[in-house]
Batch of 4 targets.
Target 1
Amino acid sequence: MTVLRPREAPARPAPRASSSLTRTQRVLGRDWRLAAVFIGPTLVLVAGLILVPIIGSIFTSATERHGAETVFVGLDNYTALVDDAMFHKGVLNSFVFTAYAEIFKVTFGLIAALILHHMRRGRAFIAGVILLPWVIPTVVTGFTWRSLLDPIFGSVNVLLTESGIGPGLAAIGLVDKWPAEWLSDPALAMPAVILVNVWKGIPFFTVTFLAGLKAIDSNLHEAAMVDGASPWQRFVHITLPGLRPVMIVTVLLSSIWTFNNFDLIWLLTQGGPGDATAPYVMVAYSKAIQQLQLGAGAAVTLVMLPVIAILVVILVRMMRRSDQPGAADLGRGRSLTPGQRRALPWVIVVGAVLMLTWASPHIVWKAAVVLGVFVVLAAAVGRVVSAFAARGNRLAARLVTGTGSGIALVGLLGFVLAPLYWMTVTAFKSDDQIVARTDDLWPTPWTTEQFTNLFTGAFGTWYVNTILVSVASTVIALVCAALAGYALARLKFRGSESFTVTILLTYVMPGALLFIPLYQLMSGIGLNDSLWSLVLAYPTFTLPFATWLLVGYFKSIPADLEEAALVDGCTRFGAFRRIVLPLAKPGLLAVALFTLTNAWNEFLFAFVFITKNENKTLPVGMQSMIFNDVVPQGQLAAASLLVSIPVVLMYGFGQRFLTEGLTAGAVKG
């Protein structure tokens, strides 16, 4: 029996996704409506508090204040800078400060990272300890080192004198006289300020270099060892090339921050003695805020914009290339020959040395001597280890390596912890002991009188103000960054890539370009001397970073989870709230930690915007505790301890989330 079956209809091709899209969706992107809602708050804040103020600053730079009137003067403010000796000195100081600081931070950060990388036990703990200078507020760093370097009450001169190092430094000419006046001697003030910046910056370089070392394939080192390569050869031909992308990005980021540094130098020397340490940012502050010539101050910051723009463009290109493995190498291969690539670093080094010799002849040879001592010692240990390894004496090689690393680690920890120890013990000394300088390194007896005296003033009010401003600005940044980061990571709309680049650009834009136009903006809307001015201003430096980090973190979450929720009838916002946010807790906590601590530590905006004592935050309030030459060492130490403890505790409890959030976010982003 024959069964007749109906002929199946030919299968029709599935309709294209674009056929269901409206014309507007095809032009603006499938998710443009939802993207507008998600990105809207961030776009308003970035445009209103960063882009528009910078454009307004350009117009301000073409004006000049004559009494109560502001008149248009065209390019006069810029042409006046040609013969402005203060501006020339400020730019030169910024260059010298940045160049020396970066050289020493790279060198010591690399040495510290190599030591930690080869540690088998206690690496996480030591890395956490080394991170402390970077974690504690800048105001604490400034006051602690100012106390240590004080020629009368500080311990640096005492320890160097008792150890014989100080007179030896004077004998070889590294200091002109002994005891040294570190912050009041024009020849020593800049090296002292550089030293403090290096102390605070080494942890950042150590952590990033350590992450770069972990990313280098260990098989390369093992293959080189089989081929008979010495430790030095493996370092030169494997470690350094593997670290090159991380090193370039780290140096560029740090250079932008260091070149625009204001708070650390102000807290240490206020640009003195004379103008020996005044950077260009301080020149802009002096003209705009102290002399009330906003146009001249804006011109100072904007004339340096091309220098910053070059660094930012290089940074963006490097970071975008790093997302594509091999792209950087291919790009270099097309433009430079192998010989040119090998010669380029030496050309840069020689050029930098010649510029530093011209700009700071009194510093360059001293820096070369100090740097040379450490480099020669490290190279000598490496040579000895290589010699023992070549002879097959591995036990001796390990012994020399362990001894050298141990000594270097003890020295590094001593350098890191000594200022923090000084701050802690000074907080528990009596005023009589501080003045009499008895038992400098130990309170006799321990007393809490500094804390009692501290809270008789406005310190408690400053503490509450700082908490309110930090929490409010963190909530704003976190909510806006979560929405914008998700939109940039998941939604399809035109302009998403350009907006991501804009976020990155605004992230590295220094506060030096913003404090003048934001000061005008806050004055115009009547928010000067108000905590609301800080709540609105702080997202300018926290929101871009938070968004950029969360973009990378959201990309690391599998999209299949959201698609399954959408198939089950969940809306896009519902999937974001129920699926993505719970999975993104490490990234959100990392962002909250960074934004909270940055707001907690911020000095420049609070210093410019707030003058009323009852509205000051902790960094500015502590700075106001100094009256002319009267420095309450004990109370400042107690205040520094109380300011640092919350930040250290937050980093201690959030270290696991911070590491996970940065690993997924910064790498993917």
Note: The first strand starts at residue 63 and ends at 66.
Target 2
Amino acid sequence: MTDVTTARPAAARTVALPEVWSLRALDGPVPAGIAGRTVPAVVPGLVHVALLEAGLILDPYLDRNETTVTWIGQSVWEYATRFEHAPDGHDRHDLVFEGLDTFADVALNGRSLGRTRNQHRTYRFSIDDALREGENELVVTFASPVAEADRASLAIGYRPHTYFHPFNAIRKAACNFGWDWGLDAASSGIWKPARIEAWSGARLAATRPVVTVDGSDGVVAVHVEIERADDADYGVSISLADGREARIDLAAHESTGVVELRVADVALWWPRGFGEQPLYDLAVSLVRDGDVLAERTHRIGFRTIDVELDRDEEGTSFRFVVNGEPVWIRGANWIPDDAFVTRVTRERLSHRLDQAEFANMNLLRIWGGGYYESDDFYDLCDERGILVWQDFLFACASYAEEEPLWSEVEAEARDNITRIMPHPSLALWNGNNENVWGYEEWGWAKRLQGRTWGLGYYLDLLPRLVAELDPSRSYTPASPWSGDPEIFANDPRHGSVHLWEHWNRVDYPTYRDVHARFVAEFGWQGPATWSTITRAISDSPLTPESPGMFHHQKAMDGNDKLTDGLVAHLPLPDDTEDWHWAMSLNQALAVTVGIEHMRSESPRCMGSVVWQLNDCWPVTSWAAVDGYGRAKPLLYALKHVYADRLLTIQPREGGLAAVAINDAPASWTGPLAARRLSFDGTVLAEAQLTADIDARGAHTFPLPDALATPAEAASELIVVESEGVRGFWFFAEHRDSTLARAELTTSARRVASGVEVKVEAGNLVRDLALLVDKVDPDAVVDDMLVTLLPGESVTFQVRSETEGDPERFCAPDVLRTSNQLVADWN
């Protein structure tokens, strides 16, 4: 008889479960045509997606169909599958679910394995007592997330929250219950991969490579945890692809250890714009008697990243420092890229990051009302040098600190810190979105009546877990955050701020009145692209307030705020297509004003993270890329205002000043011309200056009164330019200016990549744009929002496979200017 304590265990193996399961509704307000039916459901997947693919529900992205599918979140659903099992020589078998959404009972062959209550963590069930040779039946039953949220809220007691459902009572993506840009479509399903893991002896439970830099050397210390089924001795080795390796031994009863490897003259990983992104393949192996029982791999990068909040004479700084170099953050907030997150593929993420790079971004902030982002997302950011700020998943609400939530939060944080921390792009862990600010300013204290509201997570649990599991990363308790619990969280003099009064109540020129250290959220609404609107909404006539359009505006008083934010700058058109162009343009103008001001205050201000890059469905929102992945004019505005080199004219004490910002790796030296012009191009005053700006530097040039003072404000502007970089200052708003109808000479011809469009201006033309999606929804143009002085021209490159007449791109509903809006109104 073999002694099991000395037998050589076989290497662990993974057994795939079937990709297609069966799905049926068990209870709830299920429509008659669906009740009792069983449909195929791909795993990973969600109920909504399976029903859509089966043709049983209307697409909730279209018209007001969202209201026809709310019953799904109120119903109970069963996923079931069958699989074969034969003896495989292993004495341990675990059923692993990387993600279950959310309240699930898991049963194998009629035996309950356990119940889940957290969408954001991995579950592992030992199945040896239930597993049998031959056919096995696996059933996962999901309770109604809407009912469970209500039930949990009653159990733990009311806590203030935004919007309609008590999402803060459970651990599920907050925005899944609806947001001011999102669907109310509470989902259920096996939303991440599921598998069986077979092993003997021991398995790798966790591997955490803590990566640091020591002089010119890179150091990786891999913290290893193993789960044991015996008391044997094991070894753990780590190795890089070039053959460098290190090893430790774990004696009987030891389950944790640290293996360290030093890499001389290491190549540093840098954010985009600062250097290259070398990545090292790291293998971690569990070994016994010379046999590899299990292996994990990570791609790591050697760098240091710190987020510094230091007190100074002006308040408290907030700046990212990578490898000792301060980085001015040109970023955007990121929300889930689809309301049904399982539809987000690596290819789609890659395209979205292409758009972020097109807009010259170097950071994305993963907002706390969604998900811990996927490995695909982080892999792509590692490769591209895009820094990632990851919120823990608390947003716009107060959260109970009692059980069962406290243990669930700890479990999910441990899971996700361990999963994400190997990625070099991860720059910051942040405790929550707006919850400290909410407690201080939104009246929560009165409504809470002394109940816990989450501060224990943000100041105790989460920083302890980051320090334990990811000690080389920075942590902030909240966004906004002043750096000190005794200082108001959203104080512009201290730390990070969110600027929402400008959109909600004031106006965007007042961005210039705020002198922040770092702006982590601000933004302006605009509609989706025209082709997205007309695909998603079938209203006839289509108006800004027609039923479908109104349904696709989720912000409170959103249309009123759009109008209020427009009319001080541009006339309000009555024609829907003109309205669409005016609102799209105004969104871009608003964000440009804000970011130019923020960058002009460098290095006092060290970052702008605009709300938001992307959308999760076709909706009027703050996004630069709409819900079908099409770039709005805002994305082009961000490309311009986030360029390495920026010239902007800003009000300063005593008058106007030109500010040159050089965020490039080389110095900026050359003549800088400043001119005051009439709209017809006549030079009224000029000055020759010299730009001599260090790399990553900025300089302010006060403009003489002759340049800064107009004779006729309505018909004059200032232009500053150097080395092909140009900045403008108009003394009057568009609507108050004498901007005339654009005199354009256009031509279009087909080229290998699509269509080339040349535009020559006979007079001053402002904000020239090609809304190419009106011709071809898949078309992309290389630039937009170009201002031309009389006699100047620009050539646009349009990527398009359309076979139509290329002159269609020159039509007045496609080739847009602000002149069209102003001249016709005047």
Note: The radius of gyration is 29 Å.
Target 3
Amino acid sequence: MSAEAADPGAPLRRRSRPRIDLRRLGRVALRGPVSRDRLPDAIGHVAEAHRAHHPDADLTILRRAYVLAESSHRGQMRKSGEPYITHPLAVTLILAELGAETTTLTASLLHDTVEDTEVTLDQVREQFGDEVCYLVDGVTKLEKVDYGAAAEPETFRKMLVATGNDVRVMSIKLADRLHNMRTLGVMRPEKQARIAKVTRDVLIPLAERLGVQALKTELEDLVFAILHPEEYEHTRALIAAAAGPDAPLDTIAGNVRHTLRDAGISAEVLIRPRHFVSVHRVRRKRGELRGTDFGRLLVLVGEDADCYAVLGELHTCFTPVISEFKDFIAAPKFNLYQSLHTAVVGPEGAVAEVLIRTHRMHKVAEAGVVALGNPYAQDHTAAPQAEPSDERADPTRPGWLSRLLDWQESATDPDTFWTTLRDDLAQDREITVFRTDGGTLGLPAGASCVDAAYAQYGDRAHTSIGARVNGRLATLSTVLSDGDTVQLLLAQDTGSGPSPDWLDHVRTPAARIAITGWLTDHPDEAKPTPSTTTPVDADGPGRAEPAAGAPEREPQATAPPRTRSGPRATGVLVDGAGGPVRLAGCCTPVPPDELTGFVVRGGAVTVHRRECPAVAAMQEIGRAPVGARWADAEGRESDAGCRVTLVAESFGRPRLLADLTEAIATAEAAIVSATVEPPSEQRVRHTYTLQLPHAAGLPALMRAMREVAGVYDVSRAQHPAPAPAG
């Protein structure tokens, strides 16, 4: 099995063995079982391919599976005219050539028996064990995906769950679809088109994400031929015309072999023809094809270090095209793919793309998860589990699949699930971004800081106010690049929520579903434009680390919790106070802050928020606190009224001060005093002391100030502790 062009007549196609003669196999299959001391002739190709990857494999179970499949399918015919047994044989051969282990091949031979014959799952379990039974059952549940209501959302949900529990289920399904696509010509054109579209929209992206490039590329070519026959024929003609003994890649390949041989590097240099869809994409991108555009050089070596040695020689002895260099060894793709990509300039200016990988990397690049063997094979060196679990933890399951399994449970609406699934599978590339705590996040290309926030924090991301990307403050709408370091900044106001504008910037299903759910549950509370703001506070409740070169002082996102409805707080009651009571200017407490007081000169009592730094300073010098609490409407009014000091952090821009004061006035707050510090690195700090008609309006005021364009945080003032009065 290879990832070359799907057309068997294409000159650039190279195969390790000829394609099976299905009619001959059909005649052999009809002869029935053979003696126990040898395999049936009909699966000789399967045995040969399997032993090429697994020399010590026990083929006895394959023989028994074939005998059961052949006897149960006997008398059934495919629409193409061959005996039905030729289909599971062909599917199994596809997987055997990819290097699938014996359990997968056994299940592949039996994958249609429970669906189409009188064989039961209990019989499969009794004869072949739980693993084979599980795989056969999983594939059986996927049968409705292919035909009938091809876009039935609930069916695809079941497909996703089955695949997530064991990726080998989808491997069998993809091989099954490939053989069906190869023989699709016997069906009506409209049915061919319908099946091809489902293959294009769902199964090909799944093959890409599972890393099974050999299946993905042939499926792409088969779909291309059905849905775009004219462009397919034009591409086929271009490939045929480019074939010949004097192809430019042959010359460059010879030079590369000579260079590596002189450097003492043992390597195999191959010309890897592009498949039809790949050639078509290059033509659409460049307009006119060059002679080297019909293939790429593939350099195979023994060890990882040899890959970089080859790269060094190529970049030394040839002129490299630096913009084409990508290192997928140090940072593998989300589908397990590893390789070095580069391009070099050969004789007469011809540019050749080069792939450099080890033999093992090449096997995984072609076969993906199929090449990783049985993820549930017993490790006899590991300690036994205390209790068996029904959950199958697959160590080969890619991270993107785990994420899909998580969000599919949240997408209760089938249409939402279906739309989101197709959108997610349409992402053809994934990036890795780094968290400040050393962890990583896998996201689709084009993902924003909003996606990163929900990937890291889940529903806590509703309070996001921005991020730092590579140490610099950034808006939530900022698009992330592969290798970025992102620090998500969260407000401590747990009552705030996402903005509808965030939906314009999300690429991940988890973020979209979470935001949509919150907006549906809180139709009157969405903040209108946080996607334009940038932030402060991050991976925890404390201070955010300052960006490089920034002042050490950083504000805290400490917006108070949403006040509860009820009697309006109107004053402060202090235990045993005979003198005047005033609110401390250092922390300007307002309901529902917890309070404590201290008696100062003249018998007056100054009331602070309990977390105010002045409280600790007073206690250190021996001042005893007195109890203080807010009074309800029946209590004594405080002379100070509801006064609060707020600090607004923002980027400098014209009319910012006017817009902030307008937001304050709209909230019916009076400005007692205001200071604006000189800008630092385009950031401005505003400090306002405000008089509010009542404390219950404080959360709304702070939200209104945050919504001013350019403002990335508004917090309660936290002044240094004042010197205690003598």
Note: Residues 189-209 form the longest helix (21 residues).
Target 4
Amino acid sequence: MKVLDFPLVKITIAFILGVIASYYSHFSVSKLMIPLSLSLILFCFSYFWNLKHNKKYIIFGVSVYIFSFVIGAVTLLSHTEKLQKNNYTHCKSAFEKPQSITIILREKLKSNDYSDRYVGHIKSISNKIYSGKIIINIQKDSTENRLIIGNTIKVQTALQANKSNKNPNQFDYGRYLADKQIYAQIYCQKKEILVSKTITKDIWYYCAKLHSRIVLNLEKAKFNKAEMSVALALILGQQQEISQDIIQDYQYSGATHILSVSGLHVGFIMLFITFILKPIPNTKKGSFIKLTSILVSLAGFAIISGLSPSVLRSVVMFSFVAIANHLRRTGNIYHTLLVSILLILLFEPYFLFDVGFQLSYLALFFILWLQPLLKNIYKPKNKLMVYIWEALTVSFAAQIGTLPLCLYYFHQFPGLFFVTNIIILPVLSFIMIAGIVVMIIAIFTSPPYFVTIIFEKSIYLLNLMIHAVASIDSFVIRDISFNSYYLFTFYLFIIYVILWLKKPDYTKLVLVFSSTILIQLAFILTKFRTESEKELIVYHEKNNTLISERIGKNTVLFTRDTTFEKNKNSRSVNMYLVGNSIALTKTEKIKNLLYFKDTKILIIDSTGILPSNAAPDILILTQSPKINLDRVLKNIRPKLIIADGSNSNTIQKSWKNSCLKKNIPFHPTNEKGYYKL
């Protein structure tokens, strides 16, 4: 049976399209009630009409897909917490001035140089019941941090709303948090926090306690700290203590996926449990015992790892695979994946916009679909060559399937990914098995010294191999411009090529050539768009002023420091260049007057010099100039004032008040991000 002939495929696709439409179109609940009611009536009518006439009518299929689409849209809205009446986003006063906020700590995040960070759930604001997730940033000091998951804390502070990306094509951290239903953060000091004696002992508390116990027992066993941080990431998905240098090595070698617990790790665990249970006969009772053991083991792993979203979705995915194997339905593995996708998105529709979710399912799909085709190209007889060839084909299938998406999100490609996967898989297999054993022992007691040493040295060897591959810097291709046009056309090309290779015919060959033409059109359209655009950008850069003027592909950067290479490699400028498929033409010393199209732009820096007879359309303030803005505005009265990131926050508050008096728009880049003209 063809995959697309299975009704669940079309239902799942319709549901996903509904989720996407709701996400980008921002439907309201009230607007969706009428379509929901009408689609339900149409579905019921067509269903009973089919039953009455004992015949399949096309209207029934159409009604099912329309109903699935609307259900997808409604599901997303029902999981959008800010739409709930008691969500803290509706308490406007909490964002304007300090309030007494009560929060339960739920998750420990990776700390930075300045703060310990947690995810918490708000219980109340000024004794009024509110709810919602929030990030708590607690300033570090010389005293020990004694907070644990489950603590209820009270702090007098104001909520800080998530801010959008400050510079063009920058990672939008505010949107990333919003997709996790986190809409604000708070910043406080330890001395400002009141900790309740009552601890909320829910599943998050017990997961954190179990994790703390494992870490404590590993420390007692004299486990090296650097290797232990990698072990916790590999086995439990806990990356809080792992160093940035190690993360960078894994990124450059193309092995980042092994630090985030996902399908690879859960698959290892499932294979390991299946191997242990091999002696049990495949009778009806024996198969049920095997299935129960696998499901319990996977659920236990999810709990030990702290119930992170990546682990939960992988556990759900492989639980369905285990159930399909038990029911002897391995031939419909694609349908099993679809059921797991649909179930996950019904409970967490925002997972669809999570990069990890997209990459996990794409990698698994292409391994199942493409790897058998690649495997049949060459059939080695030597066992070692069989292993190497299978590792290569699995790696290539996953890489081909995820490559366009990786280029779209990360704009870089690790050229030695296949070398990395061949050399790390044997070590990783051993580490996963040894790690599971060590972690289980560490739940109850400190692991034996010889077991700890073997596990520690295997991780040391893994890090050494990863570092060796990552150090060959020339094979890491960075700053690859890859937009949404390329993303869709390249996926069309990959899909049609695989379909043609599996069963060549004339129609499929035409589709391959058509997709090739679409790729060329995507390049032409991108080139045309780039060369026809003209824009001026005022960047948000602390302690510096950066203004770029682009006419087509020619980009001039105005700055105080005119060192070409330094500005070219500036993160803010580089992301803009990569995102627009352009290169920096030249840098120039910043001037007091700029002209862009018919717009006159005046720049006042720390010198505070105001040219005579200046009548600008836009006034840009940089380097905290000591000027009386009220007097300046009285003399020149611009249409807009921009304050970049080089100005102090205190002086910007004064400028904002001055602009309000004169009714002139004020654009501070530290609040609103970059300005584009």
Note: The radius of gyration is 29 Å.
